[in-house]
């Protein structure tokens, strides 16, 4: 089935999320839609899937213009979509999830679950999915859950398959397996739209590449294009993709974590007997699929978790049981994984956000009075130093792009006297230009003698920044390995396997 999107425009108030976007996907073709988070990729695919209605433009399948009032119409027309966040019921079996919303009945109106089982087996055998129709979804690895989503779409005879950021939660091995599945689907004649911001994956699997930026198509490229060429199209300027980091001998031990356990109110253990150290002038990067205790680990270091056991010592001082204010004042900087929920106050100005963790004393508050002139001077300096693109320091934080919001957070944390920087997903949702800048700031902090803990689900980021890599799985440390450890070894460790020579 041939898909043509012609001049699709979608507005949300004054925001133009898609601006006259056109693209064509042929049967038996993998067409990558490449762009940074917020570029409009998912909005465009939600229009295709009937979740949004386009304000202008048309969708054409095999020469016939379509009018979708909802996802049901899109599915009936042959469109299937695998969302970034899976739409599965964890306590249902694979077969039950596949038939959900498309139930068939047998004698006396009973659900024909056996028909669903047969359909799962047929599709699994055809494409080599190896999925048990009777397995509970909650018991399946993330990569297999994604196959269930694909089976669900194929069971409804999807001829155009949309994969929205499909590798975001996968290990490297699971990503490789998905690429092989995509090639098999292509060979069977499916038209595939592959939405991503990962350059390496695009070049590996795509037949054609369309790049969008700020809601517009800014270029088309072949898979033979270099990463630098694709990044330049995405950002609009040349970008340095390589992190330049000189070898450095670490100094004294700054952070020592021993036997750390984090337990939630229901008694679930999210961090289980974790121990590690970080020395001054060293970056320890934490690798692992999202949801393996990384969030709880970083929050425990900042005093944000209530039920913590074990020891966290910063320059010899025990931090477990101390307040967040005390920990920050002890020289800990924190870049949270969700800048909007935890890193910024959107209704505050840039200047006000830059003083959030220093609102109780010098240099911005004296004798209980805010020193406005000092704050404004400081804020203007940081706008220039950190290349924050804004009309001025009085602009509201929620008016900034994601990359500029993240730069405000980085500027605030690194402009203090920090001994330890905890950076959780430091470049999530920002463009490659901002990634380049933020990486340089983290390395500069390390070179100045700061101890740095970077937590990232992007393996490329981990490998680029780390002096050592700690891999976590289900709340435990699988091993701590040198920065040069091969990606396939790291990928195996992310599934819980410990290779020889990996420190526990």
Automatic annotation (TrEMBL):
Record keyword Nucleotide-binding present: yes
Pfam families assigned to the protein according to its UniProt record, in alphabetical order: ABC_tran
GO molecular function: ATP binding
Keywords linked to the UniProt accession: ATP-binding, Nucleotide-binding
Domain ABC transporter: 3-239, 255-502
Nucleus among keywords: no
Residues annotated as signal peptide: none
InterPro entries assigned to the protein according to its UniProt record, in alphabetical order: AAA+_ATPase (IPR003593), ABC_carbohydrate_import_ATPase (IPR050107), ABC_transporter-like_ATP-bd (IPR003439), ABC_transporter-like_CS (IPR017871), P-loop_NTPase (IPR027417)
Chain segments annotated as coiled-coil in the UniProt record: none
Protein name from the UniProt record: ABC transporter ATP-binding protein
Organism the protein comes from: Nocardioides aquiterrae
Lineage: Bacteria, Bacillati, Actinomycetota, Actinomycetes, Propionibacteriales
